[in-house]
Design brief:
Distance between the termini: 40 Å
Largest sheet: 7 strands, antiparallel
Radius of gyration: 23 Å
Shape: globular
CATH architecture: 2-Layer Sandwich
Number of domains: 1
Number of helices: 17
């Protein structure tokens, strides 16, 4: 444990400050495909009984009409966060009319690309913009890759922590700038250590052969329908689905918020020749928002993002530039196919301790060599993380994954103890012990469990996933929502449908003008 981490923990452990760590905020977004009873991708529209995907605060869609996204509010108690996620699932299952929610991150056997339905959000300008953005993803990366699902974990430290730490360090920056700098430092440490999350929680060592659409690959065949890698933890987070494209040069080392924002501003405003060759329209119909390296900020694929809640009509870049970093969004988590909502309390409690460690541990700037090594460590772990004797790179030297994992868990233990002191009990220590057991015995990891299950049952990946999906459907349907919760969700459905109708009735101006103004909002930032 570094001296700086020890001093920060000592301050936060003082009686007057101890309650602050109980005010960290959590939020979860879970994506999942709708499939029919046989495990085929649902080609039906987003169910009206779930509300309007454009305006519903908790039930929306991501890329496809069939790719649902469930969103919780933020809460200081992750138990309540997971309880809310469970209720969203229960309500949804009450409206699916025989369809299922696909249990793992990697998709079911998909139909031909032209049949995969892109999400639609109605006739308002903002709804059309969201649809055209997704059409752009289709022409740039293909529809198949966009059907991968995951879990996003949003996390923030309480605002009152930052002045304490700033005073401890004698830092003279403006408070907002100090807070942003600390979150960016947290992201640097996340990049250093996030390979550990892929080892512990990666759950996609196998996939349906159809996913690769006949492209060359270096995967092994488990059976006629299943491809895998024997030591893989998360093929979802590998470079499997990504072709060489405009994003290959977008790997910020997060040495400052300004440099991160500059890289994104350039990416959303700089034309990329292959996309320019496609153009924005075909036969008068929009196929992508623009021909730049990325159409909008969210197109940048990363394992973690600095975030700030946006105002109506404000872009993420504008919010970060104006008010700094407010929280982080962790985006690399696989859905655990053995868990009905894809994540459980042990994982969430460990994530809290892990993210606090990243935030409070010393985090010097990363040079190009360490930046590349962090990317290499991550990619090596997702493809070979359980390989006996696997070596990673740390400060230019080889280190065993298991040795480094043990050291990290030992240091994270101090955060788990502090969180247990705040919340009472020993739940965070037990969550940490559960992760230690996976390091000691790789067969306890979700990725190893999936492969063991496939081998023991003789099931293909798709049959295994369908079995789990049916079991989860029974779990949710066995215990319907309480009347008060059902009424609350039904009210949200009607509210969202009304809000979408109002947007469509109030729209002024044509769509081309709307897109031009949207693009101009970023061009204006380039001169700031």
């Amino acid at each position: 444990m570094s001296d700086l981490l020890s001093r920060r923990l000592a301050v936060l452990g003082e009686r007057a400050n101890l309650s602050l760590l109980g005010q960290c905020l959590h939020g979860i977004e879970r994506e999942c495909l709708r499939v029919d009873a046989q495990g085929q991708l649902a080609l039906t529209d987003h169910p009206v009984a779930l509300g309007a995907a454009l305006t519903h605060p908790q039930i929306t869609t991501d890329y496809s009409e069939a790719l649902l996204e469930f969103i919780t509010a933020t809460d200081t108690d992750v138990t309540r966060t997971l309880d809310e996620l469970e209720k969203v699932h229960r309500f949804t299952y009450g409206r699916l009319e025989g369809e299922l929610l696909w249990s793992p991150s990697m998709p079911c056997r998909l139909p031909p690309e032209e049949l995969i339905p892109i999400a639609r959000y109605g006739s308002s300008n903002i709804g059309r913009l969201k649809h055209v953005y997704r059409r752009g993803l289709a022409v740039r990366y293909g529809k198949t890759m966009q059907c991968i699902a995951g879990i996003h974990y949003n996390f923030s430290l309480p605002e009152a922590i930052w002045p304490l730490l700033q005073a401890l360090e004698g830092d003279s920056q403006a408070p907002r700038d100090y807070q942003s700098a600390r979150y960016i430092a947290m992201i640097r440490n996340f990049r250093r250590y996030s390979w550990l999350l892929m080892y512990l929680f990666g759950a996609t060592p196998a996939l349906d052969v159809n996913f690769l659409r006949g492209r060359p690959h270096q995967l092994d065949s488990l059976d006629a329908d299943t491809l895998y890698l024997p030591w893989a933890t998360s093929l979802r987070m590998s470079d499997l689905g990504y072709q060489n494209n405009a994003q290959s040069g977008l790997t910020p080392c997060y040495n400052g918020l300004d440099s991160y924002l500059d890289s994104l501003r350039q990416a959303v405003s700089t034309p990329y020749p292959p996309y320019a060759a496609i153009g924005t329209k075909r036969n008068g119909e929009w196929v992508q928002l623009n021909t730049n390296m990325i159409q909008i900020e969210n197109e940048y694929y990363s394992s973690i993002r600095p975030k700030r809640v946006t105002y109506t009509g404000e872009r993420p870049l504008q919010a970060l530039m104006a008010r700094g970093v407010q929280y982080v969004e962790v985006r690399c988590l696989d859905i655990d196919p053995y868990l009905p909502v894809g994540i459980d309390l042990d994982e969430a409690r460990f994530l809290d301790a892990f993210l606090l460690y990243c935030a409070l541990q010393d985090s010097p700037p990363m040079d190009g060599g360490e930046c590349r090594a962090s990317t290499d460590n991550f990619q090596l772990t997702v493809k070979e993380g359980r390989r006996p004797g696997l070596q990673l790179q740390r400060r230019g030297q080889p280190v065993g994954l298991r040795d480094w994992a043990g050291e990290l868990l030992e240091n994270i233990g101090a955060l788990s103890e502090l969180l247990d002191t705040v919340h009472g009990g020993d739940a965070h220590r037990r969550a940490l012990d559960a992760q230690r057991s996976k390091v000691e015995d790789p067969e306890r990891t979700p990725s190893a469990r999936v492969l063991a299950d496939l081998r023991a049952s003789g099931d293909s990946f798709t049959r295994f996933a369908l079995r789990q999906s049916r079991a989860h459907a029974e779990h949710f349907r066995r215990e319907p929502l309480a009347a008060a919760d059902r009424q609350r969700f039904e009210a949200l459905v009607q509210q969202s449908l009304g809000e979408q109708a109002e947007l469509e009735a109030a729209d002024q101006g044509d769509f081309d003008t709307f897109v031009a103004a949207y693009q101009a909002s970023i061009l204006g930032l380039l001169s700031v």
